[in-house]
Amino acid sequence: MALKGEMLIFICDGVADRPVKELDGKTPLEAARTPNFDRLARLGENGLLDPIAPGVPAGSDTAHLALLGYDPYEYYTGRGPFEALGVGMDVRPGDVAFRCNFATVEERDGELLVKDRRAGRITEGTAELVAPLDGVELDGVKCFIKESTAHRAALVLRGDGLGAAVSDVDPHEEDAAVARAAGATPEDRKTAAVVNEFVELSYETLKGHAVNREREKRGLPPANIILPRGAGLAPHIPRVTQLYDLTAAAVVEVGLIRGIARYCGLDVVPLPPEVNGGLDTDLGAFMAATAEALEKYDLVLANVKGPDVAGHDGDAAAKVDVIERIDAAAAPLLENLPAGCHLALLGDHATPVAVRDHSGDAVPVVFWGPGARTDAVESFGERAAATGGASRLRGRDVLPILLNLADRAEKFGA
Ligand code: ZN
Ligand code: ZN
Question: Could you list the residue range(s) of the whole structural domain that residue 132 is in?
Answer without folding.
Answer: 84-233
